[in-house]
Amino acid sequence: MAEVKPAARPLSPHLQIYRWSWTMAMSIAHRVTGTGLYLGTVLIAAWLIAAASGPAAYETAQAVAGSILGRLVLFGYSFVLLHHMVGGLRHFVWDTGKGYEPQTRMNMAKYSVVVSGGLTILLWIIVLAVG
């Protein structure tokens, strides 16, 4: 009896086939920042619990948040929050049926990093000037 060979199955497209683009990177970044927001929410909840637990716990939480490492974490969290927001606004524009042209999509993806970085720096300038 003759041996029957299975038909060659097509390979699923993967990163070796696609050329890396800004829109791909921002799609991944949007998912990563969403996860970061979950983790940052745990920190906010811990701060609120410390505030509700009394002056000693609150002072400890404030000391941790005011340290260099704490401020770096807060800076990162604010960048993640603003980057996710800008990415959401980019998706909102697409939901209106606009911005689908290839160059427009690339520009929106590139500028989302610039805008979120600029907003983060502006936010921290205001926070440090007021506080």
UniProtKB/TrEMBL annotation:
Primary subcellular site in the record, as a coarse category: membrane
Cell location: Membrane
Family annotation (InterPro entries): SQR/QFR_C/D (IPR034804), Succ_DH_cyt_bsu_CS (IPR018495), Succ_DH_cytb556 (IPR014314), SuccDH_FuR_B_TM-su (IPR000701)
This protein's UniProt keywords: Heme, Iron, Membrane, Metal-binding, Transmembrane, Transmembrane helix
Swiss-Prot/TrEMBL GO biological process terms: tricarboxylic acid cycle
Cofactor note: The heme is bound between the two transmembrane subunits.
Entry's transmembrane regions: 36-58, 64-82, 111-130
Membrane topology: Multi-pass membrane protein
Cofactor(s) needed by this chain: heme
Gene Ontology CC entries for this record: membrane
Residues holding heme: 84
GO molecular function: electron transfer activity; metal ion binding
Domain of life: Bacteria
Biological role: Membrane-anchoring subunit of succinate dehydrogenase (SDH).
Family membership noted in the UniProt record: Belongs to the cytochrome b560 family.
NCBIfam families per record: succ_dehyd_cytB
Subunit (UniProt): Part of an enzyme complex containing four subunits: a flavoprotein, an iron-sulfur protein, plus two membrane-anchoring proteins, SdhC and SdhD. The complex can form homotrimers.
Protein known as: Succinate dehydrogenase cytochrome b556 subunit
Species for this entry: Bosea caraganae
